[in-house]
Design brief:
Length: 258
């Protein structure tokens, strides 16, 4: 069995704020507004990809946020959400997976609580604090890069990772990452090879654990490995090049169609 683990936002799916041209398809509606799109060619390629490999969306989105997306393909058998802390099977949560995730990150519990306390009184925070399913912390801040630096100086970085994505700030247990998640799923399914694609710091653990990976040029200098990692030129449509490469890899992997 072969798996294609892919991030969603800015890898396959783009916000309405991102100019991907007029040849696009709406894939997400929120509060009666169209907020996310894919290109028509991405849609065509994704339909081809899902016919020959197990496509597993792998995202930091919550269950609710993930379920808002309609990619116009049959519902994937598996999806990893909450940065891999929750596994959906046929759209339903796998309770054992979630329990294992919670137990797995217990050693980060004190640092997470300390991070919540620090953010609670941070005057740069301009959004509510969310402790997502007891797994990780999310909020929004002014001067997010400075907030991240300050948190990294105050928290035990061997226990937690702190990132920002635009104004969004996250505190995550060290073991709650997409690399651990795809390794767990690979073992659970008895998969042979994993292809992964992603565009952000959240995706680096997944990229480095995959057998083959596709990343945008901007992530190149963040990676510690250089094996079977394919770099997409920043002038090219990343989502389309990801799927082109997956199809190419599928053709090369013996026994995939059996």
């Amino acid at each position: 069995m072969y798996i294609f683990n892919s991030d969603l936002d800015n890898t396959l799916v783009y916000s309405y704020k991102h100019n991907i041209g007029s040849d696009k398809i709406n894939v997400e509606i929120y509060n009666d507004r169209e907020i996310s799109y894919i290109t028509k060619r991405t849609s065509m390629l994704l339909n081809s990809v899902t016919k020959i490999i197990n496509f597993v969306p792998t995202t930091t989105r919550t269950v609710e946020q993930y379920k808002r997306i309609n990619l116009g393909i049959p519902k994937p058998k598996y999806a990893l959400v909450c940065n891999g802390g929750i596994l959906l099977e046929d759209g339903e949560e796998n309770p054992e997976w979630y329990i294992d995730s919670v137990n797995m990150v217990k050693d980060s519990e004190d640092e997470i609580k300390r991070g919540i306390e620090l953010l609670e009184y941070d005057t740069r925070r301009n959004f509510e604090l969310r402790f997502i399913r007891g797994l990780f912390v999310f909020t929004k801040c002014e001067e997010p890069e400075t907030v991240v630096i300050d948190l990294r100086n105050l928290l035990d970085n061997s226990k937690v990772d702190i990132f920002n994505n635009g104004t969004k700030v996250y505190i995550l247990p060290k073991r709650l990452n997409k690399g651990v998640a795809i390794t767990r799923l690979k073992k659970k399914l008895g998969a042979d090879k994993v292809i992964a694609a992603g565009d952000s710091l959240f995706d680096i653990p997944m990229i480095e654990m995959a057998d083959y990976a596709i990343v945008p040029y901007g992530l190149k200098n963040q990676l510690s490995l250089s094996g079977n990692i394919f770099i997409v030129n920043e002038k090219e449509m990343f989502s389309e090049k990801v799927l082109d490469k997956v199809l190419e890899l599928c053709e090369k992997m013996e026994g995939l169609y059996e």
